[in-house]
Amino acid sequence: MSAAGFEDTQITVALVAGQTLREQCLARFLERSGLGIRTVALENIRESLLDPNRAVDLAVIDIGEHTCRDPGIRTSLAWLRDALPGVPIVVVSDREDWSAVFDALDLGARAYFPSSLGPEILIETLRFVQKGGTFIPLNALINAPLHRKQPQGVEGRRTEMRGLTPSEQRVLELLKKGQPNKVIARELEIEETTVKVHVRRIMKKLNAANRTQAALVAQQMTGAVA
Fold first, then answer.
1. How distant, in Å, are the alpha carbons of 95, 137, 204 from that of 140?
2. How many CB atoms lie within 10 A of CB 127?
3. Is residue 206 part of a domain?
4. Do 124 and 31 have their domain in common?
5. Nearest in space to 179 (alpha carbons), one of 210, 149, 134, 122
6. Domain limits at 214?
7. How far apart are CA 175 and CA 126, in angstroms?
8. Shared domain check, 213 and 133
């Protein structure tokens, strides 16, 4: 497999797993992928933070059969968000049900990767997330209930969507396609900093924890009011 996906630049992945065997197998696979990936175990993350030349680029947390609502997993996610602000988090899980996916996104994950998918797809997912993208398994999107966590009813959804400015709506349409800020800026011919402002406002207006959840909420609202 070519290293061109990561542009020949070594990246550091903070790796957290509940079982030592799973963690060591995942670490060995990533480091031998030929993509210049270096893994850092949970106990060594703080040490890496002290070295500016070893900045963490991605965080991967393998939760096995648990969900992100389990106290121990939730604590680990909170610790990662606090220790690695702004670093994308990828959740690897044995579960593929929509509620588990939604819980991960709700708690700040950028991607949800089912362990049933092939390892080469995991590499592509990490590459995509590193470049600003998001990943959600297709089956979870297909089976997503339209009314989850939207108790205000159809009229409330229409009101929230009408609260977005035309510029925010255009940005949201590209968010729903999983486009990163750079691509959105290029498509709309605006500055990337302007895109970031729009995204923050969209998240606030839709009461979303992150950009991925904002896109999913918008899809649910669209389906509910169609």
1. 10, 5, 24
2. 17
3. yes
4. yes
5. 134
6. 153-225
7. 18
8. no
Asked if residues 176 and 215 have their Cβ atoms less than 8 Å apart, the reply is: yes
CB 62 within 8 A of CB 92: yes
Judge if pTM exceeds 0.85. Answer: no
Token pair, residue 188, equals 């709309």
What is the CB-side half-sphere exposure of residue 103 using CA atoms within 13 A? 18
Q: Hey, what are 15's tokens?
A: 């790796």
Computed over its alpha carbons, how large is the radius of gyration of the chain? 18
Q: What is the pLDDT along the chain (226 residues), one digit of tens a residue?
A: 334 444 455 788 888 887 777 888 888 888 888 778 888 776 656 555 555 555 788 999 999 999 998 998 998 888 888 888 888 999 999 998 888 888 898 888 989 999 888 888 888 888 888 888 888 887 776 666 644 444 444 444 444 555 788 899 899 989 888 888 899 999 999 999 999 999 988 888 887 777 877 887 777 665 544 4
Nearby residues of 86 by Cβ (< 8 Å), 6 or more positions away: none
Residue 55 has what DSSP assignment? -
